[in-house]
């Protein structure tokens, strides 16, 4: 679908651009992957191999020469600024992809602090090598920071609660649940017998199971807008008096995100024919509003539910615990692209082509070269992000020497 980004990021405390197109490398002459792959049939009838678990299994090879990336100081400067902001989170961080070690970042970040902005392209030439993960074919969607009608205290017309993290929502203790790829155990709760179990799902929460517990940090006018703000993971509540409350992801209920656009496509509701809707965020919202009962049932298929915290300071916070920046920050699957790594994109939409920095993750951003681009706040950002569905090629910039080390590790396995 055109809008499969679940902005479900690690909680606080967890390791929680622009310019012309990248020039002359291209995606392989093959059909691009579907935005959302259908799962393989269960059981012995499936002949499909399991998907690769990480970048090494997906395959690595040297990318194009830097001259093919078309970097200029002007186009590379925003990426250098965002890379510097990532450095405090990178230098002691374990990289789940296995492609980068902390000392790689320590060396590069020490240089970044002194590097002149008027030679930004030179910074990337000096410290990085180009690498293609898998076949290099990328699929890119967009996300943004929504602004919806909301207030701090309940009042007429503002009846849908925005919840903070319930005290009984916790990470499973080690050994009580499998560790996820991000190195953390899932969210859930412990029952009266001390057994770890799943938390309440979306239907239970929207039916009021958490009401009266003092968890409301705000109230919004439109539950559909809140649903999509949860998908984005952060946003702004604007009151009728012009006041603004900024909120960001704090936790989720531990249940898997379900892509409601994919569900619509399976039912034949997305397309260009009579009675069908565009596969963008705007098209999905239109269907929900024009078919309230079916739309509510559709949203409830996504049993995942996001809890928020109030944000202060600069920008939405990404998975590295630093602000994400419009036109420069992307969300990636950290098993395939290390957080902190610059990524050069050449896509079939020039707006998303250029040099970006991996600073975020997302519940639906899974697999090699599956990328979500951040477009900021406001109506223009909403329009671009909601309709972003672009295909092309991705080149990851890794610290020099990382490719040979990773390939040697793969050969030894």
UniProtKB/TrEMBL annotation:
Biased amino acid composition, Pro residues: 36-53
Entry's transmembrane regions: none
Residue ranges occupied by any Lytic transglycosylase MltA domain in the UniProt entry: 147-309
EC number: 4.2.2.n1
Pfam families, alphabetized: 3D, MltA
InterPro entries listed in its UniProt record: 3D_dom (IPR010611), MltA (IPR026044), MltA_B (IPR005300), RlpA-like_sf (IPR036908)
Compositionally biased intervals (Low complexity): 14-35
Catalytic reaction equation(s): Exolytic cleavage of the (1->4)-beta-glycosidic linkage between N-acetylmuramic acid (MurNAc) and N-acetylglucosamine (GlcNAc) residues in peptidoglycan, from either the reducing or the non-reducing ends of the peptidoglycan chains, with concomitant formation of a 1,6-anhydrobond in the MurNAc residue
UniProt keyword terms in alphabetical order: Cell wall biogenesis/degradation, Lyase
Region (Disordered): 1-54
The protein's enzyme class: lyase
Protein name: peptidoglycan lytic exotransglycosylase
Phylogenetic placement of the source organism: Bacteria, Pseudomonadati, Pseudomonadota, Alphaproteobacteria, Sphingomonadales
């Amino acid at each position: 679908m055109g809008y499969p980004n679940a902005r479900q990021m690690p909680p606080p405390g967890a390791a929680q651009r622009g310019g012309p197109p990248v020039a002359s490398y291209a995606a392989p002459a093959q059909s691009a992957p579907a935005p959302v792959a259908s799962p393989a049939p269960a059981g012995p009838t499936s002949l499909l191999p399991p998907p690769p678990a990480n970048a090494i299994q997906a395959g690595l090879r040297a990318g194009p020469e830097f001259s093919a990336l078309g970097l200029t100081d002007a186009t590379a400067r925003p990426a250098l600024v965002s890379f510097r902001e990532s450095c405090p989170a990178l230098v002691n961080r374990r990289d789940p992809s296995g492609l980068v070690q902390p000392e790689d970042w320590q060396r590069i970040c020490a240089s970044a602090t002194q590097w002149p902005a008027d030679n930004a392209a030179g910074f990337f030439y000096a410290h990085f090598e180009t690498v293609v993960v898998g076949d290099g074919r990328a699929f890119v969607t967009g996300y943004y920071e929504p602004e919806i009608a909301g207030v701090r205290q309940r009042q007429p017309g503002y009846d849908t609660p925005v919840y903070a993290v319930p005290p009984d929502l916790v990470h499973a203790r080690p050994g009580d649940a499998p560790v996820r790829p991000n190195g953390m155990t899932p969210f859930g709760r412990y029952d009266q017998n001390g057994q770890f179990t799943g938390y309440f799902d979306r239907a239970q929460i929207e039916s009021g199971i958490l009401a009266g517990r003092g968890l409301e940090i705000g109230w919004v006018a439109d539950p559909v807008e809140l649903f999509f703000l949860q998908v984005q993971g952060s946003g702004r509540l604007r009151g009728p008096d012009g006041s603004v409350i900024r909120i960001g992801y704090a936790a989720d209920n531990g249940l898997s995100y379900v892509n409601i656009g994919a569900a619509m496509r399976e039912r034949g509701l997305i397309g260009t024919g009579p009675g069908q809707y565009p596969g963008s965020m705007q098209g999905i919202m239109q269907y929900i509003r024009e078919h309230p009962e079916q739309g509510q049932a559709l949203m409830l298929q996504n049993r995942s539910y996001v809890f928020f915290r109030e944000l202060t300071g600069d920008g939405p916070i990404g998975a590295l615990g630093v602000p994400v920046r419009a036109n420069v920050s992307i969300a990636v699957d950290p098993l395939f692209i290390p957080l902190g790594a610059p990524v050069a994109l050449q896509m079939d939409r020039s707006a998303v082509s250029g040099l970006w920095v991996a600073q975020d993750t997302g519940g639906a951003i899974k697999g090699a070269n599956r990328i979500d681009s951040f477009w900021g706040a406001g109506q223009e950002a909403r329009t671009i992000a909601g309709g972003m569905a672009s295909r092309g090629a991705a080149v990851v910039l890794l610290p020099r020497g990382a490719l040979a080390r990773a390939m040697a590790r793969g050969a030894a396995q």
